[in-house]
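Quality-control log, excerpt.
Job 1 of 2 completed; input and output follow.
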Amino acid sequence: MQDTLLRQRETTAPASAVRTDWTREEIAALFDLPFTELVFRAAEVHRAHHRAGEVQLCTLLSIKTGGCPEDCGYCSQSVKADSGVEATKLMEVQKVLQSAAQAKDNGSKRFCMGAAWRNPKERDMPAIIAMIKGVREMGMETCMTLGMLTPGQAAQLAEAGLDYYNHNIDTSPERYEEVITTRTFADRLQTLDNVRNAGINVCSGGIVGMGETRADRVGFVHALATLEQHPESVPVNALVPIKGTVLGDMLADTPLAKIDDIEFVRTVAVARITMPLSMVRLSAGRESMSEATQALCFMAGANSIFTGDKLLTAANAGDDADAAMFARLGLKPMEGEEPMRARKTENPKAVGGCSGGCAA
């Protein structure tokens, strides 16, 4: 029944079409496909828009750690968590630029900067702007995640030349209040609107393995795939359970709550099919994945990773380990422009909110 629903849609729109009218039933049907069929379809969509043998390398730096007033249940940087993470002040601009230069030397194309704030204060904006301009002068793409933004703050970041702003929706709208209570799902979407309206590319994804159901994963993908314009970048994180956080402590003795590798790959594949032009990024949790699992993710359409030994506070695989994995898999760092950004440069209307069967 569900597969019939998908095939009926495929008779009116090619597999690589860019759509923003996905239904939850269609997304659930994708999740329910036989695993090899799902990965095959995702690989077809991926190859229609992306170079299959290239993976974008990004580096993430915490420019202000700990002390966040939000109560995100997965986060060790929340003041509500007893994780041992100490609050720090905003890093000096020069130290941030030194880290960016090192990341560039290690092959990263994009430098992402994260601050543990509910929202940035106006007194911090001059330093933030200097960081953006300094990294861009090195020839790297810039991304920041600073919490919620007002339209004015988004405009300031855009004027400074920020390429991407990350603001994850985290999970499905229905499960959101079980993970975070200090801001709403609508608040998340408002910041995404402010970022988009300022002309900054959107980076938005979420976390799986938080004890959610597949229906929640369907809702998570649906929320992103039905935005008026898909995010240019979609991070898919696997929960890293950290002692002292609400979810880390809650799931510590329930190993069955952890998402299994096949289900994680399914999530990547469904994200790729429903958002064909987006960069789908393997983010947190990758350090605990086998190379075989990561290879399946790349086959299913993931084409961006964070490299380096550390993300914000969690461990990461490291540059040397990633270089060795790339050599074994025959992958190479991505070169050239990302598909969605390239299309926007050529034709700003090409990746807008088309519903139904506009060809990609």
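Job 2 of 2 completed; input and output follow.
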Amino acid sequence: MTLHAEERAERRAAPKPARIPSGDRPMYPSGEGLTHHWASMGETTFVAGIWALYALHRIAGRRVFRALMWPVVLVHWLTRPALREASLGYLRRQQAANRLWPHEPNWRQGLQHVALFAETLLDKLLAMAGRYPADKVRMDGAEAVAQQAISGGGGVLVTAHIGCLELCRAMAQRQPAFKLNVLVHTRHAQAFNRILQRLQPGAALNLIEVSEITVATAMLLADKVAAGEFVAIAGDRVPLHGGRTVTVDFLGSPAPLPIGPYVLASLLKCPLHFLGCIHEGDGYAMHFEPLAEQVLLPRKQREQALAEHAARYAECLARLLQRSPYDWFNFYRFWDPAHA
């Protein structure tokens, strides 16, 4: 059975996810906006904002960019209650789980969280343009993925809205055999690809827009994995049109995580790895971790197997965020299934 067919069968049996009220409109993480759902935003505004951000840095440098960034961050913080709620909700769960700060996170930590997101957007552009210094990117645990790429075998990388994943191009610089296809659930994939081609023609990073995995999409991804390429898919956000989730513990609270990455890896019969990125020192650390040589979903234990894979992913993500807690950019009610 294809992923699309499995998802359709499961969706018929599952309750329909609730829409987000239009009043809850958090800041768009990793280039993805939110009106009724986190994934909608006007492409013209999006592209204009991207280029304005990039031009400001090129003309004035990072110090001026930071100085001008703070008023924008403050306005967002003051005028977007959903943004404040989501940021502080996440930071307070971090505090309860790991005691990272001497006191309960408040507006100071929240502003720092949003400011890091704004600065990370700049680094995404620099990474896509090949202008982010490669010596400031440390690869952690990348040997297995690099060896897999050299041998001509592809795989699935389950990632998150964390740090600057566009720095995967640094991996491609060091290992030319590494080619990455990133699945995104918004209409901005084509816009991002156009920006990417203007910033750096021939970059080994390709964005593929998917609102759901159809038979055609699964065949396309199967061809890419068979050709030795990798497919990255977020494991911390429910797709645009809903989809099945499993509930696992994340930072001490039950969290709904999509099953898509594990079903996809099972269908493609390829290795599954975790991929994360966090700020480290004056640069970033790209973290790879093997999750499964092959994802097996036995019919009778399917739900249990899916939950185990999602729980393993959540553990990897939590460990990484403990090292750099401001690097997670899911600015919506993540722990509330009705707002996923």
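Post-run check on job 2. The first helix runs from residue 3 to 13.
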